[in-house]
Amino acid sequence: MRAALQSKKLSARELTGEFYARIDRRNAELNTYLTLSRERAYAQADRVDAGIARGETLPPLAGVPIAIKDVISTRGIRTTCASKILETYVPPYDATAVERLEKAGAVFLGKTNCDEFAMGGSNENSAYGPVRNPVAPDRVPGGSSGGSAAAVAAGLAVAALGTDTGGSIRQPGSFCGIPGFMPTYGRVSRYGLIAFASSLDKIGPFAGNVADAAAVMSVIAGHDENDSTSAPVPVPDYAAETRKPVQGLRIGVPEDYFGAGLDAEVKEKVEAGIALLERLGCRRIPLRMPHTDYAVATYYILATAEASSNLARYDGVRYGLRAPGATLTEMYRQTRERGFGPEVKRRIMLGTYALSAGYYDAYYLRAQSVRALIARDFADAFQKVDAIITPTAPTAAFRLGEKTSDPLQMYLADIYTVTGSLAGVPGISVPCGKTKAGLPVGMQVFGPHFNEGCVLQIAHAFEQAGGSTI
Amino acid sequence: MKISREDVLRVAELAHLGLSPEEIETYRDQLDSILSYIDKLKELDITNVEPMAQVIFAPANPATGASHPELREDVVRPCDVWGPILSAAPDAAKPFFRVPKVIDR
C-alpha cells in the first residue's frame, strides 16, 4: 500500500473512498460501524497526499484506513460505548493512542460497534444491535471488540483498535479469523479510553496479518504522562522483533487449558498448531498452571467491582443522557435505568454487591488474593518457558442468540483469555485453521511482561508457515 | 438462594439503579447462579497470599531512575476546556452544571 501511495499509483483520498464504498456495500448487513467519520478521514488522507506531492518521507501508517472501537475517545467524533447513555456524546479530545495514530498518518474511517461499555463476549450487548461475523453471518463475531474484528476480517478497514479487558481483542480475533493482539498492562496509554475495569483494560490492534499489527503497536506503545499506569519502559522495534527466528524457543503447553469444555475440533487444530511450531524449531514443554480453573470467578468479581465504580460517573449531570426526575436521586435512578442495557446493569449489581459492607472480604479481597495466585502461575511458567501456547476460546464462533439467556455460560466462554488479563501479560490470538464447518480457530500465545516481541515473533512465524490453513 | 429480593433492592439502591419488578426477579436468579459459581474461590487456601492491588511493577527506567508506577510532579497546568465540557452537559448554566433540587424541606 505504501509503495502504491509513494509511486502515486493511488492517492490516499482514492484509497479512503474505496474503503467507504466497501463499507457502504456491507455495513447494513454486518453492522460493524456505528459512526463514520468521513470528514476527518478525507482531511487526514489529503494531508498524506499533500506530503507525497511535496516529496516528503511518509510517516509509518501514511494513508492506512483504520477503524476505532467506540469506547476510545475521538475529538469531534461521536463516541457511544455502544450505549444509549452516551448516544449523543462527542468527546472534546483524542485518546493518546488515537492522537499517535493520526500523527503516524492513519486515516480514521469511523467508530466500531462493540458490546456496551465493552461488557460481553458476543457483541450482542450493543444497544445498536449485534455485529454479524463476516465468515458466517448467522454467527457472532465475538466480543467485546466485535465490530473492530469484523471490519478488518471483511476488508472494511486495514487495521483497527480494540480493547481487551478479559479477552475482548483475542476472542473476536479468533472468531473472525484474524490476529488480535493484547499488549502488556501499561504498555499502551489508556488516556481517553472510557474505563470499564481499570486494572485490566488495555488498548491493542487487530490487523489482517501479524506484521501489520506490530506496525500499529510500534505507533501506539510507550509511556504517556497523561496515564499514570502507562509504564516508562523503552519500546523495542516491533517490526524487527517480529522477524526474528523462533528456532530454539521454549513453548509451554499448560494441560489445564486442554481439559473438559474444550471443543474437540478446536483442540485438534491447536494441537496441530503446536506441532507446526515444533517443526519450526520450538521446544514443547508441558506445564501445569493450577489456578486456571479459578480465573473466571476471580475475573467476574474484580472486573464488575471496578465497573460498578467506573460507571458511577454516568449520572446525567456532566454528559450523556439525562432522564427527568423530581429530585437529584430520582434523576440519577431514571437516567441509569433508561441509559444502561441489561448486561451493564447486571455487572454493576454484581460489582456493587461484591464491594458492599459484609461481602467485601469474602468476594473482592479474596478474588484479589486469587488473582495473585494466577499471576504467580504465569511468573512460575516464564521461569521455564519463553511463551505459553493455548487455545484462545473453547469453541469457534457460536450462533447469534445461542448463549444470551444464560449469562454464566457466556462468562465461562472467557476461560482461556481472562487468565492472561488478570496476570497483565501480553497475548495474541493468531488464526489456526478452520473447523469442518469452515469456522476459524484461534491459537493464543502469551509472553512475559513487556515482551510483546516474543509473542509477535511466534505468531508471525506461525502465520508465515501456513498456520491459518493448518 | 444466596441472594434475596431485599439484597437486590439494597444493591440497586446503592448503585442508583431503578429496576422494574420483572428485572428484580431476573437479576435475583442470575446473580444467585453467578455467585454460586464464584463460591468455588472458597476452595483455595489464601492465608499467606497478599491481595494483588497493583498489576505491574516495571523495572526502574535507566534514563530517569524512576520506577513504575511513576507519579509526576503535581504542577498546575492550564486546562481551558470548560466550553466544550459544558456544551456536552444535558443542562448547563455557565460556569455550572444544573441539576434538579437536592434538598426538599
If you had to describe this structure to a student in words, what would you say it looks like?
The complex is a heterodimer of chains A (470) and B (105). Chain A has 470 residues and is of the alpha/beta class. Chain A has two domains: 2-242, Amidase signature (AS) domain (Amidase signature (AS) enzymes, Alpha-Beta Complex); 244-296 and 362-469, Amidase signature (AS) domain (Amidase signature (AS) enzymes, Alpha-Beta Complex), CATH 3.90.1300.10. Chain A has 16 helices and eleven strands. In chain A, the strands form two sheets. A six-stranded mixed β-sheet of chain A has the order 5-10-11-9-7-8. Chain A has a five-stranded mixed β-sheet with strand order 1-3-2-4-6, sandwiched between helices. In chain A, helix 10 crosses helix 12 (342-355) and helix 10 packs across helix 13. The mean pLDDT of chain A is 97. The mean pLDDT of chain B is 87. Chain B has a domain at 5-43: Histone, subunit A (Orthogonal Bundle), CATH 1.10.20.60. A two-stranded antiparallel sheet of chain B has the order 1-2. With 105 residues, chain B is mostly helical. In chain B, helix 1 packs across helix 2. Chain B is built from three helices and two strands, in the order H-H-H-E-E. The longest helix of chain B is centred in the N-terminal third of the chain and has 18 residues, at 21-38. In chain B, a hairpin with a 2-residue loop joins strand 1 (92-93) and strand 2 (96-97). The interface between A and B is large, with 71 and 57 residues.
